[in-house]
Design a protein that fits this description.
It is found in: Cytoplasm. The protein has 303 residues and is of the alpha/beta class. The protein has 9 helices and 13 strands. Helix 2 links the parallel strand 4 and strand 5. The protein binds adenosine-5'-diphosphate (ADP).
């Protein structure tokens, strides 16, 4: 199976004619409540592709927590190792989106911020049965590093999405990572120079390999993907689709990539799978709702 060790969040989205200013009360128009969190999104991406998927993480002892766990189960994700933290709220993102496309986002990490060594221990019990571990950066970095160490010790492949963007990751993390998958913004934060387009992506990937990752994949949005290991370097163009909302495209990419590697396909084919899943997610609005199921995915790849 594939295990995701990461964040589980509820997004509360309000749409407004414009963003409110400080102290202002504004009448909005619509309200949506959607399941999110990069960890949960990547888990759902994999489960929808038919991969046996389990998530290890935390929610709060509130209605959101119950709902988040139920939604993951409905998508086919194994949730036995989600710990319900009695001391804190579930992770919540409060999002205001204006007609002009601007947004304001407040993220309360809540239970995600409490992920710690106890969760790493629960993870460790599952590792002998697993083939791959997926990590992101919406839980404390100490827990991410400990999880990567545990996976390394159990000989499990680690796929690490350094999102949301962060600079100064601990040096010890890189050699524990098999595949790192930044987008342009995240790659720039990690390497300390702007990353825009294939040439700079290649430079950034070289730096990341130098730091000890085995494979660096830089996601360049609608442009495509650059991939480098010690043995090979290649570029895969994005699938030409009509994009309506790229939210969760990066998570879909990681799901497609991990699914292909899980099924024993080549690195090149895995990047193509990632690109296909990312492109399909971009054609639909929403986060988890935009992630393709296996039927849609296979049909798209055959086209
Ligand atoms: P993130 O969502 O992390 O910012 P990207 O925007 O690079 O990452 O999207 C991840 C992947 O999804 C891309 O590498 C690409 O394969 C695919 N993708 C994203 N946007 C589009 C698009 N407009 N058209 C086609 N594919 C896309």
């Amino acid at each position: 199976s594939i295990i995701i060790f990461g964040s589980i969040n509820i997004d509360l989205v309000a749409t407004t004619p414009r963003l409110p200013v400080a102290g202002e009360t504004l009448l909005g128009e619509e309200f949506f409540k959607v399941s999110g969190g990069k960890g949960a999104n990547q888990a759902v991406a994999l489960a929808k592709l038919g991969i046996p998927t389990q998530i290890v993480g935390r929610v709060g002892a509130d209605d959101f927590g119950t709902e988040l766990v139920n939604n993951l189960q409905t998508s086919g994700v194994q949730t036995d190792n989600i710990f319900v933290d009695q001391t804190v709220s579930s992770g919540v993102a409060i999002i205001t989106v204006s007609h002009t496309g601007e947004n304001q986002i407040v993220v309360i990490p809540g239970a995600n911020g409490r992920v710690n060594q106890e969760d790493v221990e629960r993870l460790s019990h599952l590792l002998p049965e697993a083939r791959t571990l997926l990590l992101q950066l919406e839980i404390p970095i100490t827990a991410v590093v400990a999880a990567a160490k545990a996976a390394k010790g159990a000989n499990i492949k680690v796929i690490f999405d350094p999102a949301p963007a962060q600079s100064n990751l601990p040096d010890e993390l890189y050699p524990l990572v098999d595949v790192i998958t930044p987008n342009e913004v995240e790659a720039a934060q990690l390497v300390g120079f702007p990353v825009d387009g294939e040439e700079l992506a290649a430079k950034a990937a070289a730096v990341l390999l130098q730091r000890g990752v085995k494979c660096a994949i830089v996601k360049l949005g609608a442009k495509g993907i650059f991939c480098a290991t010690a043995e090979e370097k290649f570029f895969v163009p994005a699938f030409p689709v009509h994009a309506v909302d790229t939210v969760a495209a990066g998570d879909a990419f990681n799901g497609g990539l991990a699914a292909a590697l899980f099924e024993g396909l080549s690195l090149h084919q895995a990047v193509v799978w990632g690109a296909a899943a990312g492109a399909l997610a971009a054609t639909k609005s929403g986060a988890q709702t935009s992630l393709p199921d296996r039927f849609t995915f296979n049909a798209f790849l055959k086209e």
